[in-house]
What does this fold into?
Amino acid sequence: MKDAPAQPKRRRSGRARLLLGGVCAAAIAVSSVALVNFAYADLSGPPGTTLKAAAERSGRYFGAAMGGDRLNDSGFLTIANREFDMMTAVNEMKPDATEPNSGQFTFTAGDAIYTWATQHGMRVRGHTLAWHAQQPRFWAGLSGSSLRTAMIEHINGVMAHYKGKLAYWDVVNEAFAENGSRRQSNLQNTGNDWIEAAFRTARTADPSVKLCYNDYNIENWTYAKTQGVYNMIKDFKTRGVPIDCVGLQTHFTGGSSLPSNFQTTLSSFAALGVDVALTEADVTNASTTQYAGLTQACANVPRCVGITTWGIRDSDSWRGSENPLLFDRNSNPKPAYTSVLNALNTATTTVPGTSTSPSTPVSTPPSSPSSSPPSSPPGSPSASGQPGACTATFRMVNTWDGGFQGEVTVANNGSATINGWTVRLTLAGGQSIANIWNGVNTGTSGAVTVRNAAYNATVGANASTTFGFLVNGSTGTAPGIGACTSP
Ligand code: XIL
It folds into this structure.
């Protein structure tokens, strides 16, 4: 693909939009639910009738990007809430938005998106920490070691704020040129090791979040830029530079349509030991075949963990005149929506670690061929549920005016695996559960019973699992925790 096109021209972000989002968010505290893995695979289940349900069948997510102005757009929010389980801020977590002046961090606009998304059961992708575009204005006056230091301080400042809360961070965005060499930029001029410096800083700043490199025009396996990025990831893996994922933006335009080797690209990156994701998908005129094809490619690669479209409706798109998204301006799903949904529902690979299969790796490595099965410790009963073998412990994760986020750890203190658990909670008057994950509740106020979800029934000896919930109500009074029983 010699003539891979330039990106559609970027519009500068509107400060007015950022401010609008900021005002709405002023009174909202940031909660932290993002690390919960909502998606668990169950390919035997019925087809999903929403994008997220169809993606979750195979342990994947389906994401969207939103700007702060969409927080006042009920049409957008309705679809987002119904169809998506991952959210990216369009501009609000970028360097110019989060550190407008040196050392002066502002997270109001990013937090507003984060809070809305997590309160609606979504996880959040952080986007982005180091990029040649949308930089703080003061970076323009820096170079060499002072710019390198500013970048590192920026990563530390932003990641400290979101520590433990995000599923992924696009640590570095768009650092390669079309010919496969590094893109010329002020950051590149600080030294060729600037990307690994960014990733090392990021790992230390928040070891819980997956660290991604993100770029466009890296979808075609034989394209020079794809190879340039591939070689960098390979080098990082070889030398132990921390990196967990590659984001392929997947902006398909008239000149860079879906390549037939897209799946090869995804599986080749994945074979390096990183997750891959389609992070900003949009396709000129929302070609059904291209949307089906890009979805199919992801669904065929186990480590392709999810797809994000850059907006929801054509009216949300940065390329709006190309009508490149899955919903039209009247919020109706377009034919491409159906092709994506169908492709997700026919996935045959699941994301590693999301299987519901009970035969997950609890037992011995296959080193002793014909020896008897792993024996229980002397004197213990054979491995099955022991009634009463679990304990439940509550933790207040976050409180805000009008509610709180709680987490209960279900621990198996016994010596045998338990299969199934139930925890009883008592909520204070006026409180009700708004949202719960990793557990299934009966009742939302007063005495509430929470059972395991389909995928976390099994808890090994001395192991634990957690479920979380959001409560609406005037106080942050912790619920009473009753007995944990099993099964
Ligand atoms: C775009 C936003 O959508 C616009 O609102 C903004 O004016 C420019 O940036 N690649 C990226 C995204 O990584 O951050 C870009 O987002 C689109 C291209």
In short: The longest strand covers residues 390-400. Residues 144-161 form the longest helix (18 residues). Residues 10-13, 90-91, 173, 249, 280, 318 surround XIL (CB under 6 Å). Residues 1-38, 358-387 have pLDDT under 50 and may be disordered.
